[in-house]
Amino acid sequence: MSALLLLGLRILAAAALYAFIGWTLYLLWRSLQQEAVFLSSRKVTPLKLQIQDSRQSVPILRFTQGSILIGRDPTCDVVLEDATASAHHARLTFHHSQWWLEDLQSTNGTKLNGEHVETPAIVVNGDNIQCGQTVLLVELE
Question: pTM for the whole thing?
Answer without folding.
Answer: 0.69
